[in-house]
Structures are given as C-alpha cells and as structure tokens.
Write a structure and sequence with these properties.
The protein is an alpha+beta fold. It has 1 helix and 2 strands.
C-alpha cells in the first residue's frame, strides 16, 4: 500500500513501528 513512503505519510499519516506493532499517527498538514 505504501509505494511512496516519502509522500504517503504526509497525506494519510505516519506509520510508526512501536513495540512490534504498527501504529498510525495522523498529522495535520
């Protein structure tokens, strides 16, 4: 799903790996 990790985090949010599980933090851009 994440083809462009440099662009998509700005659009949909940030994918952060925390404690072995992925958490999405949405940024207000």
């Amino acid at each position: 799903a994440l083809q462009n990790p440099n662009i998509e985090p700005v659009l949909i949010g940030r994918l952060i790996k925390e404690q072995g599980k992925y958490k999405i933090e949405y940024t207000k851009a």
